[in-house]
Amino acid sequence: MSSPFLSIARLERTLSSGNVEELVFAPGVNLMVGPPNTGKTKWLQTLDFLLGDPGENPFEGAEETGLADKYEAAAVDLLIGDEAFRLERKWREPGAKTKVFVGEISMPPREFQHWLMERLGIPLLNFPKGNPMSGQTWPELSFRMMLRHIYRQQRFWGDIADKQPEAEQHACLLQFFGLAERIYTDDYGNLIDLRMKVERLKSRREQFNQTLDQLARDIIGEPELSVAVNLASVRSAQLRLSEQANELRQRRATLLRDGGRRVIADYDQSHISRLAERRAEALVTLEESRRRLRSTNERQNELKRYRTELSNELERIARAEDAGAVLADLRITHCPACDQAVSHKASADHCFLCHQVMPDEPTIEELGAVRLRFERERLTAELVEIDELLQVLSKEAASVGAALNDAEEQFGLIERELAPAREAISALVQEEVSGLDVALGQASERERQLGRIAGALDLEDDLTAQIRGLEKEIEPLQERVNELVRSTDFEASASKLEDGMNAYLNALNVLRPNVWRHSAIAVDLTRSNFTIRVGKRRWHVALGGTDTLYFLMAYHYGLLTLSPEPATHYPGFVIIDVPGEFSGEAVEDKENFIVQPFIDLLKTDLFAGAQLILTGASFTGLQGANFQRLSLVHVA
Cβ contacts of residue 97 below 8 Å, gap of 6+? Predict the structure, then answer.
C-alpha cells in the first residue's frame, strides 16, 4: 500500500493588526500567478516554515526587512489522506517561536517531523552519510531532507536537490521508492558496527606488531629476532638463552670447585664439605623457624581481635540488661489506637489493655531475661576458651622464638668457620667468577625480556581471537543483509522514475514538437548510489539552458507518478517556484506547456487527492487548474 496523499486546503498569515490574509487551494494543479514582487515566493516560504522549518520566522535571511514584524502568525489547513489537521506557527508569541502547533498541541520541529512522517506512513530511518565505514554517526532521514525534492525553491534550479549531498539525495530517493527500510535495516547498522570493530582491531594488531617488532629487535638484538618477531622465534631464543645460562652456572660451579681444591688442603676439604652441608641444613631450619613464628604471631593477633569483639558484645549484653531493668516498670498509659488514657481495672489474670486472659507460660519480660542470660553465659565461655588458646599460642611463640635464636646462632657459627676458606677461594678465582656472574646476569635479564615479549605476543593472540569472534557474528548478519539486497529490485524502482520522466518529455514534444531533442532519460540505482543520464552522459553534463528546466520539471513529474504505486512513500505533493528567468531567457512563454502534463496527470482517478502548487507570471489560457491571482506589487 502506498503512503496517503498530502495536500494543502488553506494557507493563512495573520497581520500584526489582527487581519488575516489567506489563499485557498484545491486538489490537482494550483497556480499562483502574478507579476514579479507580488509575494508568491513569500507565501511558499511561509508554507515551508509551517512544514517544520526550525527557524524562528518564515522570513529569516530575507533581504527585505520588517516582514517578521508585519506578520505575527501563520497557519495551514493540511489534508493527509481523509484526515484534516490545522498547523500554526506563532513567532511573535513568547516561548512559541520554534514550536509547531498541531491543533492545540505544541511540538518542536523535530518532533513535528516525526509526527508528519508517521501520519504519511513513512518509516523513520537513519542512513550512512557517505562511506558507511567512515565512522560518522548515521543521521536521521528527516522529512525536511525529503522536502528538498518535493519543494523546488526559486533559487534552486541547478540540481535535483541543490546543495544536498549526493548520499542524502540517494537516501531520499530510496525512501520515495520504498526501498530505504529494506536497505537501512538494524541488521545493516549492526553489520557496519561489527565491521568497524574488526577493522579497528586489525589496525591495532598491525600497529602492535610493528611496534613490538621494532622495539624487540632494538632492545634485545637476538639473532632469532633479526628478521621478524613471532612466538616461534621468541621460544627459540628463550631455549638458547636457557642453555647458555645453565652452561654459565656449570662453569661457575666447576671454577669454584677447582679453586677450592687448589687452595684448601686435602685433609680440610672433607671438613669444608661437612660445613657446607651443615650450613644448608641450618639455612632450611632457619627459614622453617621464621615461617612458624610468623604463622603463630598472625594466629595470636587474629585471636586477640576476636577476644576484643567478644568483650564488646558482652558489654552490650550488660547494657541491655541494665536498660531492661530500668524500663521494666514502664507501663502503657494510653491506648495506641485512640490515644485515650487506659484505666487499670482488669484482674491480675487478664491483660489490662486488651482484657484477654494472660498465658500460663513465662511472661515476655522473663523470656527476654532468659535469652540475655544465655547470651552472656555463652560469651563468657568463649572468652575463657580464647584466653586458654592465647596462653597456648604464647608458649608456642616463645618456643619457636627460642628455636629461631638457636638456628641463627648455629648458622652464624658455620658462616664464621667457612669465612677463611671463602676468602682464600675468592682471592684465587674472584675475577673469573665475577665475569661469569656478569654474563649470567645478562643472560637472565635477556630471558626476562624475552618472557615479557612472549607475554606481549599473547596480546596479539587475544586480538586475533576477538577478531575471529566478531567475524563469526558478522557471517549471519552479512547473509541476511545480502539476501535482503538480492531480493530488492533496484532496477524496477529506477524504471518507474525513468518512465515517469520520459512520459513527461514525450508529453512536451506532443504539446510543442521537438522541444526535447535529446535522448531518453536513464536512471541507474544501486544500494549505495544512483545516476541519472541523458543518453550515455550524465544529465548535468549533457544539458544546458532551458533543457535543464525541462529536465527538472520531468524529475518532479516522475516522482509524482510514484505516489499511487504500492509500497512507495512519495506523498503526492509538489511545490514548484518557477523563476522569472532561466539561463537568461524569460520563462513566461514556456509556462503553459510545461504545466499541461501535470494537469492531465492529476485529473485522473488514480491521482485524486494529489496536488501541485506552482508559481508563474500569467498562465494565460490554461484550463483545468485552480488559480490564485496576486496583484499587489510590494515595492521596497
Answer: 56, 57, 90, 91
Give DSSP secondary structure letters for 577-613. Answer: ---SEETTEESGGGHHHHHHHHHHHHTSGGGTT-EEE
> Percentages helix, strand, coil for the chain, rounded to the nearest 5?
60, 15, 30
Which amino acid appears at position 338 of this protein?
C
Residue with cell 500567478: 33
Q: Split the chain (636 residues) into runs of 10 and give each run's mean pLDDT.
A: 86 91 94 87 92 85 67 93 94 88 93 94 86 72 93 90 91 92 82 81 76 58 50 62 69 59 52 65 80 87 87 84 68 72 66 69 58 81 86 87 83 70 51 60 66 67 83 83 84 94 94 91 91 92 87 95 92 90 56 88 93 87 88 68
Q: At what angle do helices 143-150 and 109-120 cross, to 10 degrees?
A: 70
Domain 6-179+488-629 has CATH 3.40.50.300: yes
Q: Cβ neighbours of residue 342 under 8 Å, at least 6 residues apart?
A: 332, 333, 334, 335, 352, 353
How many Å apart are CA 96 and CA 596, to the nearest integer? 41
Q: Is 320 exposed, middle or buried (0-12, 13-18, 19+ CB in 10 A)?
A: middle
Question: What is the distance between the alpha carbons of residues 157 and 163, in angstroms, rounded to a whole number?
Answer: 11
Query: How far apart are the C-alpha atoms of 324 and 414, rounded to whole Å?
Result: 69
The reported pLDDT for the residue numbered 583 is 47
